[in-house]
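2024-03-11 09:14:02 DEBUG pipeline.ingest accepted 1 chain
2024-03-11 09:14:02 DEBUG pipeline.ingest length=174
2024-03-11 09:14:03 DEBUG pipeline.predict start
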Amino acid sequence: YTDTVLFDLKIMDNERSKKILIGASDILKEHFRKAAAAGKAVIDYGLHGVLQHVTDTTLQEMEELAAEGIQSFKLYLTYDFALTDAEVLRVFGKAAQLGTPIAVHCENDSIVNALRAGFVAEGRMSAHYHPLSRPNECEAEAVELMLHIAHKAGEAPLDIVHLSAAESLQAVRE
């Protein structure tokens, strides 16, 4: 299927930014209600949530947000908000129960960080080294892991985003 994704990025004032960081799901619900009620949408649109940590509350909010119209959720395996395998399993379990797709940014965070740290230590910090710190194997290994966890969690609906390596594509095809 095809989605058009639009974001309202008017969050530059500090007070609203704090609210978004503290109570993101409440703000998403309110934004969704207001936009729908005001009849402002001139195209079909969908919202998806980003999961940066997983608790029992987060899983309950996934259910509430899905009921409110959030069509998918995204999670990361790298960066400062990478989820652990155990957290991914919990999210995929809830996604399987809800039938809600989970989009995953797949990279092996430990290897990427080790390679990046090595380049930085050697003073090699130009843009040229960014892709070198993320070899195809780092993506492919993470893609394979997500496919296995999605299966273990009851065939959770999975969307691998930013797929860029032939090895990753091969894993998906298998």
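2024-03-11 09:14:41 DEBUG pipeline.report The two ends are 21 Å apart (CA to CA).
2024-03-11 09:14:41 DEBUG pipeline.predict end
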